[in-house]
Amino acid sequence: MMKLLIVDDEQIEREGLQAILQRAFPELVIKQAKNGTQALEIVEEFHPDLILMDIKMPGLNGLETIERISSTYPAIKFVMITAYDSFNYARQAIKLGVKDFLLKPSKANEIVATVAKVIKQCEEEKLVMAREKIQQAALHKTLQLVETDIVTQLLFDHVHEVHLDMLVEMLGSETSDEKFVIVVFLPPGSEKYYSLIKEKVRITKRCWVGALYGRQLPLIVFRDKEKSFRSQAISLAIEIRSVAKKEENDNWFIGIGNVCYSMDGIRQSYQESLLATTDTAIPSKYRFYQDLRPSNMSGVHKTKQKGLYDNIRLGKWEDVFLYILNVIQHYENKNVPLLEIQQRVLELLWDASRIISEMGVEMDTPLFSFHVNNGRELRAETSLLVSRMKEAYSNYRDHQEADTIHSIKKYIIEHSHEDISLDMLGKNVGLSPIYISKLFKERLGINYIDFLTECRIEKAKKLMTDTEKSIKEITFEVGYHEPNYFSRVFKKMVGTSPMEYKKSLLSKR
Predict the structure, then answer these.
(1) Does residue 147 sit within a domain?
(2) Where a domain ends, among 364, 396, 428?
(3) Beta-carbon neighbour count of residue 476 at 10 Å?
(4) Which helix (H) or strand (E) holds 433?
(5) Alpha-carbon distances of 256 from 220, 227, 281, rounded to whole Å
(6) Do 379 and 406 fall within a single domain?
(7) Domain shared by 413 and 499, yes or no
(8) How far is residue 26's CA from residue 5's CA, in Å, rounded to a whole number?
(9) Which of 202-206, 299-303, 434-438, 439-443 has the lowest average pLDDT?
């Protein structure tokens, strides 16, 4: 509904204009002001789209009133009403952005035509703004999906070199060469805090938030050179834990990995952040990996670990459990502290969990529910965690990879115009995002983003045969939200820009 304000010091002029306009535009909401000062007050509450402004008025004249209103409400349109056909007035009015003039007296049809023209302009601008708002909302949603995808690929070693730089540029975060990973472990039932944590850490503009896997929420944090590493990490940990009430976040714990200097080093920092969460009983509820006691266990049993991994893939869980028991016994014989043994066992369990996750098995990250007090408790807890992995693995074996690949490809083809993320894809086909990424890479030789991009580009090529469609329209129709990004992807895939490709199609006709 459009709103109009008539400003004139002569009542008969105001009433006459309102009568003419109300007959021509029944839906138009009209108010009147008898001078510039009153107009300023009405605008504050009424927020008109268009103002018919008389030039000559006592007190504030029309041009002065327009200047004051425009400084606060630049979107309001103005039509000047004057009995003076003066170039000087016109020049000043044009500088203030006045859209048109009405000379006193004007014919009714001239008044209607002038107002109709400006109303149409207002409506077109509102439509453009509404479209831009929708596009911005869609872009914001897309960027959130992009962010979780990047974190997933980096942490689980499925980085796609072609797209990563573009995706990072799209996010517009304050990145730096130095980065580290923190992992937030939430208690059962705390998934509701996921979106709140994302909102909290995004204020810093220095974090990428990954997807929530079970109770584990990973974040890639970029170093703030104006703070020390420890102060930045501690500050962020406190901010995250402030999301929940004190009585609710006592079971939250945050592990902080070491700083790394390349994208390739992020996975190591991630593993370190996981190891830092081994003992969650400390009062601060966060721990740096660098604060763990150095272990003399690295390298032990390394020659036998390949056999362990093979047994995991083959589902020989009795042999897996026996291997871990032998590791425990080996460290006990060397009088290694119990906490360090627990850390090493947990690392082996994480390796096992990663391997079966890549095979498509969905399960929570294995964690000891308490700090064990003796070897018997350690063996019992380890047995329980291995049994859970065995059960999850057994439930998975019914999946057939050929049918899986077919269903994934079919879904992507049918929904390529939508915002598809690994997490969303996994939920729709009932598989883990990590497994889908690995499946594409190993079985099809491409990343899932590659396949999605190919689908979109092929669809774009077909749409370009329609001479009525612009490149911008095609951009949105195939699933992109930013024409410049679409053009860059298209040129990388096809070897020529969308406009050049479309011209070549037309020239062949």
Answers:
(1) no
(2) 396
(3) 17
(4) helix 433-439
(5) 10, 16, 16
(6) no
(7) yes
(8) 15
(9) 299-303
* pLDDT tens digits, 340-351: 788 788 888 888
**Side chain identity at residue 166, one-letter code:** M
- The gap from C-alpha 330 to its chain's centroid, in whole angstroms, comes to 47
**Domain annotation covers residue 129:** no
Residue 497 CB-half CA count within 13 A: 8
Shared domain for 283 and 222, answered yes or no, is: yes
440-450: string of b/e by CB count within 10 Å (b at 16+)?
beeeeeebbbb
CATH of residue 477's domain is: 1.10.10.60
154 in a structural domain: no
User: Are 183 and 162 spatial neighbours (Cβ–Cβ below 8 Å)?
Assistant: no
Burial of 295 (0-12, 13-18, 19+ CB in 10 A): middle
Sheet with 100-103: strands ordered across: 29-33, 3-7, 50-54, 77-82, 100-103
Residues 278 and 386 in one domain: no
Question: Residue type at 298?
Answer: S
CA-CA distance, 161 to 103, in Å (whole number)?
A: 66
Please check whether residues 390 and 338 belong to one and the same domain: yes
The residue with tokens 């045969």 is 465
The yes-or-no verdict on residue 15 having pLDDT over 90 is: yes
Contacts of residue 12, defined as CB under 8 A and 6 or more positions apart, other chains included, come to: none
Distance CA 458, CA 150 (A): 24
Number of structural domains, the chain? 4
Q: Which residues pair with 207 in a beta bridge?
A: 221
- Give the pair of three-digit tokens for residue 283: 């009062």
Contacts of 259 (CB under 8 A, 6+ apart): 178, 179, 180, 223, 229, 269
**3-class state of residue 351 by DSSP:** helix
Q: Cβ(498)–Cβ(459) under 8 Å?
A: no
Claim to verify: residue 333 and residue 268 sit in the same structural domain: no
Last residue of a domain, one of 63, 81, 106: 106
Give a yes or no: residue 336 inside a domain.
yes
Tens-place pLDDT, residues 397-424: 655 566 777 888 888 888 888 888 888 8
Domain range spanning residue 270?
173-291
Are 257 and 193 part of one and the same domain? yes
Shared domain for 10 and 89, answered yes or no, is yes
Whether the pLDDT of residue 151 is over 90: the answer is no
CA–CA gap between residue 479 and residue 420 (Å, rounded): 9
